[in-house]
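A.,

Following up on our hallway conversation. Structure tokens first:
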């Protein structure tokens, strides 16, 4: 058998071996825009940019990544959407970016025991799936957004 036939046979085998993974690959990148931008990555990077992170706990949050599900302190659903941010007691300061409102599948946000300041963004009203929001022991100021009262079945700790 000549080398080109062996190569074609190998490629065919390799492609066929990936077929069972195709549904998973499709779902994982379901939040990609037509231009290949993952909106959840953009939202998470806005959050990272607004925070000061003295111990680099967010160092593996990478703008060039397509999939934030492997990032530290990010939890995703089986279909690849960000469902939780767990950043308690990480010595974070700075502000909370309104970009958090673009993580529309969030169920839990744990930011307690940091030094985050500024206003609590009113964007939480977009997060219909949010069940737990803990912003306690930070340095937020201003009024609590009335939109937080619009959320059903949520545990708030401010």
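Then the amino acids I'd put at each of the 158 positions:
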């Amino acid at each position: 058998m000549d080398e080109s036939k062996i190569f074609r046979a190998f490629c065919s085998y390799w492609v066929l071996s990936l077929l069972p993974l195709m549904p998973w690959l499709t779902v994982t990148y379901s939040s990609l825009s037509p231009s290949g931008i993952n909106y959840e990555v953009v939202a998470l990077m806005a959050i990272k940019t607004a925070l000061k992170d003295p111990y680099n706990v967010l160092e593996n949050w990478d703008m060039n990544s397509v999939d934030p599900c492997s990032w530290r302190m990010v939890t995703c659903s089986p279909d690849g959407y960000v469902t939780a941010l767990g950043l308690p007691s990480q010595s974070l300061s700075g502000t909370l970016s309104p970009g958090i409102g673009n993580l529309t599948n969030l169920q839990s946000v744990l930011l307690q025991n940091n030094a985050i300041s500024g206003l609590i963004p009113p964007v939480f009203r977009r997060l219909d799936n949010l069940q737990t929001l803990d912003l306690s022991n930070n340095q937020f100021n201003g009024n609590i957004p009335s939109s937080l009262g619009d959320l059903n079945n949520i545990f708030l700790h401010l």
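Helices lie at 3-18, 22-28, 39-50. Curious whether your intuition agrees with the design.

B.
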